[in-house]
Amino acid sequence: MKNKVYLQGYKLKAIWVILALIIWESIARFSSVTSLAFPSLTLIGKALIESIISGEIINQMAFSLGLIILGLIISILLALIMSSLSIINPIVENLVDTCISIFHPLPGIALLPLIILWIGTGYKAVVFIIIHSVLWPMILNMVAGFKAIPQVYKKIGRNYEFSTGKIISKIYIPASLPYIIAGLKIGWARAWRAAISAEMIFGATGGKGGIGWYIFNKRVFMDTPGLFAGLIVIIIIGILVEDLAFGKLEETTIKKWGIS
Amino acid sequence: MKKIVIIGFIFLTLLVSACSGQESKKEIRIAEQYGIAYAPVQIMRHKAFLEEEIPGVKVSWEQMINTAAIREAMVADKLDVGFMAIPPFYIGWDKGMDWKIFTGLSTVPVGLVASKDINSLKDITNDHRIALPQPGSIQHILLSMACDREFNDPNKMDNLLVTLSHPDGMNALLAGSEIDAHFTSTPYLETELKDNDYHQILSGEEAFGRDYSFIVGVTTKKFHDGRSDLYKGLNRAMAKSIDFINENPHEAAEILTEYFDLPKEEILEYITSQDTNYSNIVKGTKSFSDFMHKTEYIYPNLIMI
Amino acid sequence: MKDIIKIEKLTKTYEDNIILNNIDLTITEGEFVCLIGPSGEGKTTLLNLIGGFIEKDSGNIKFQGKEIRKPTRDCIMVFQEFDQLFSWKNLKENIGFPLKNSREKLSMEEINNLSTKYIEMVKLKGFENHYPHQLSGGMKQRVALARALATSPKVLLMDEPFGSLDAQTKSSLHSTLLDIWGKTNTTIIFVTHDVREALTLADRIVLLKEGIIREIIDNNEKIPTDKKVAEITRLL
Predict the structure, then answer these.
(1) Could you give the CA distance from residue B124 to residue B133 in angstroms, rounded to a whole number?
(2) Tell me, what's the ipTM?
């Protein structure tokens, strides 16, 4: 029964997409709108296939994903350290809280001029912006997760004379996994947006600028179909990561454990 | 299903209505751009030359962030007149934009500024990074021209480019960490050259081979053909503004202080400099388009519909 | 019989309320003691003090002659809450958890054997791969018991572990617990407010009321007759 509902949801979504494509194509073909603003699906498809064959779009996407994964890994580690410390020590907790109040509302892009002065313009700057976008919500989620852990878990950890490190790694982290996964989802979404925006501003170094730069470049050369090809690839990756990767992660962990 | 059709219909109507602009009013929509190179535009605005030449005209000044935005606004029929360098004009034209250059505007100092350990293009290695506004910009094309002449390879430096706006590029260069050279123009060029650690290794003229129009005025064919009264008035107002700057530089500098965050003396220095020229003659289009064909930045035979 | 836990002149206050007032109690090895009393009268506090989870105000609590200052593996606590099981581990992994993380490095085989032994002891064979959310409340408490026993602690501290279960489940758990107690010779200190439960399980029933020990009742027969239940209930 559940599967059926699921399937119907997907079918309906497919209908919406097809409908949107039909409307798109009719506007492109039958209205007076220039193809510079509304390229036909054929042109977009051609641009997409060409850039896949030439490897350009794949390379740029791989570059962006590489930066995002690097940024995510660093953010997760930093968030783990800072959340753990702030659970142990109230002074650190206060410091971390202060940092979050200051930096969390600050969009990474607003820091751009400073980042150029301090770090420069290369991939390090993009990674820095990704970390900034991911770290604060991640810490918020982790600390919330740690605080939501049942008291008994902590008592059990003490009962077996675990060190603080062991309590955190063996009990706190798995117990707060629903929060950590939620944080990871927010982190991914924010990293993805941050990376693309940063790439659109920083441009490429050595020809490698990621998918954001790819789109920027298409805009500069007024290649609208190519621009749409970039957007399509971004949508596809977004769906793949959110539905498949996170779906799978949740299925094998918190759904299986009944704590989602 | 019926609902879906209705929603689709509404969507379609909205889109179509959004794309059709208003017609036949006496209005000129013109891009508002700032900088020494755009000084005649500010003068035209301040002295209301357009209103003087075309009595009863309504002038809308539209804030535009960059060349790409101007092109897009013209495609969407939200803008009649803008100002840019010749290469971005050709890129749009190549992609099927029906538009034309209606006037020359200015030539200002343009150059490649590098740290002192780089003395010429030959000293630039694969480890160096060059900042410039964006691929396809006049700075990029000038650099390609220089590379073509020097190394017979227009794309030699393409992998060293970092896209940065003029102020960001200047900051990055002067920070001295990652950017080794910056292709820029007035007043960033002069500011960078004040720092003794940097010097100019290539000027725009050296790259191009002779003088050329740095900024030109562009307008849509629709405006040119459909509103020839406005178009002629625009040209007259433009010429008047350029003449005004050339004939009354002191007064012009005084006016420009209201628009630029610079002292009058400095503005005067920039607009009367030997390397700055305001003229409605368009120079260099043929060389730019020939070079851009040759290097395949534009494709003369491929017209997309 | 040797003394295993010796409490002398123990006092604990909490925000001006005297929870425990100058208590003396000695528990011998292998004994099954029930702490009984009205709720909020210090039973759980006393258990937590013995476990080392909270600090006393004055007096002594000694385990085998040594002052208890913090929780140790010698006295393992079993809680009332069903979520004391780790939701991310299946039944067998939950029981193996303290073994895996013990100081004496056990081999996988030893861990496996011990887990299996205690799964059988609490009669949960066949459920090894179930996750806690797939188990009933009674089963969860059986797993908690098995996990507590896995490291062979000297003392089991049980804080109303069957308090949320229905009568039938409770009684089957009682027989399992007594069975295990007989086999392992573990000292058990069991907190409850259920008089019948205390009479079913304990050798001695310690009646706590208003911060002092009111009565210590010997209960060798372990048969909860209505008369005995009524007698003790009157004292509460």
Answers:
(1) 19
(2) 0.90
